[in-house]
Amino acid sequence: MLKVRNLKLGYDNVPVIFGVDLDVHEKEVVSIVGSNGAGKSTILRGLSGLIKPMEGTIEFMGENINKIPAHKLVEMGIAHVPEGRQLFGKLSVKENLMMGAYVLKDEAKKKDALEQVFDLFPRLKERENQAAETFSGGEQQMLAIARGLMSKPKLLMIDEMSLGLAPVLVDKVMESLKIISSTGITVLLVEQKVQEALELADRGYVLSTGRILTSGTSQELLASDIVKKAYLGL
């Protein structure tokens, strides 16, 4: 589904991602893990068209998307849930969700998408008319993920889902990702909590200072001495 080769990304002509290769297959959950400042969020910005590659290629469903603008990538089936939620605080839950459905032209499809996210997150249904800014951190994260799902994506990319959440809420939100994956949506997760992210994923990539340090199945990475020493404190 997603094929990235020799990707170089940066800001103001200063590279922060160097020669990254990665693949995401249909219906997989793939995690990109690493410490704060490793460049994980920059990769997602590049994949979603928010910044353009300095070098390398990004292919989605067999098509080169290097020069395709971000809003067109949403129409093609890529949804990006950004770090820090980025909700419209003064708007209600339902209004935030409908913002995510702007690419759906058919009202019946919008209604169907809304029903699906309310099934997944009943708490949002209960409080659909409440302002997003009144929600707790965990509820806001659920709303951000639900808004991403409203465009009916083929690939859902989530940036630092656990940021600022209590451990019990992290578990709850991670559980929701398992359900999303079971519906056939491919998930690419960028996450600082290495163990939780790898336990959820089929495969993973470990990023360090803009480069892929190692990659493999989740079991291989969790058993890896590099990962154990650098990220799991073992």
Q: What's the total count of β strands?
A: 10
Question: What would you call the shape?
Answer: globular
Largest sheet: 6 strands, mixed
Mean pLDDT: 90
Order of helices and strands: EEEHEEHEHHHHEHEHEEHH
Total of DSSP H or I helical runs spanning 4+ residues: 10
Q: What proportion of the residues form beta strands (DSSP E)?
A: 25-35%
Radius of gyration over all CA atoms, rounded = 17 Å
Through-space gap between termini: 34 Å
Low-confidence stretches: none
* Order of neighbouring strands in the sheet with most strands: 6-7-8-3-9-10
Helical residues, percent: 25-40%
Briefly note the structural class of the backbone: alpha/beta
Main attributes?
six-stranded mixed β-sheet; single chain; 234 residues; alpha/beta; 10 helices
Task: Give a verbal description of the structure.
- With 234 residues, this protein is of the alpha/beta class.
- It is built from 10 helices and 10 strands.
- A hairpin with a 2-residue loop joins strand 1 (2-11) and strand 2 (14-24).
- The longest helix has 16 residues, at 167-182.
- It is globular and about 45 Å long.
- It starts with a strand and ends with a helix.
How do you describe this structure in short?
The chain has 234 residues and is of the alpha/beta class. The chain contains ten helices and ten strands.
